[in-house]
Amino acid sequence: MLAATVLAVFLVLSMGGGSFGELISDHLEKPMKTTVQDDGRRKAALQELALLRKSIKGFNKGVAKDIKSLNKLVDDYESTPEAFDALFASAFDRRKQELGAIWEGRAAMMQHIQPNEWTSMVDSATAQMTVNSK
C-alpha cells in the first residue's frame, strides 16, 4: 500500500517525466509576434508570455527538486512515514501555489489576445512542435 502511494505521488509530482508547459510556451513567441497586429497588445502579450515562461520554469524546477528529495527519502532506510507525509504536503502546497500563478499569468496574457489570434497561434505552435519532433 505504501509503495503504491509513493508511486502515485511520484507520478503526479513528475508530471509524466516531461517539462510541463515549456514546449508550447517556447513555440508561442514567434506566432504571437506575427499574429497579434496591434503593437500595444502584442508588446503586452509578449511581456506576459515572458512572465508565464518564468512561472512554468519555476514549477518544473520545483518538481525536479521534490523528486530528488523523494529519492533521498526512498534511499534512506531510516526515513519515517512522517518524513514522507511532510514532503508530500509541502510539495502539494507548492504545486498548488505555482499552478495558481501559472493560471493567473495565462489569464493576464490572454487579456491582450483575441480568440481568433489565439487559435492561429496555437495551431502554428502545434505545427512547429510536430515538425521539431520528427
Structural summary, described in words:
This protein is an all-alpha fold. It has a domain at 41-125. The chain is 83% helix and 0% strand. The chain has 6 helices and no strands. The longest helix is centred in the middle third of the chain and has 37 residues, at 39-75. Residues 13-18 have low confidence and may be disordered.
What is the count of DSSP helices, taking H or I runs of 4+ residues?
6
Structural class: mainly alpha
- Amount of beta strand: under 5%
Low-confidence residue ranges: 13-18
- CA-based shape: elongated
| String of helices and strands | HHHHHH
Primary descriptors:
6 helices; elongated
Explain the layout of strands and helices.
Elements: H1 2-14, H2 22-26, H3 29-35, H4 39-75, H5 81-110, H6 115-133
Helix pairs in contact: 4-5
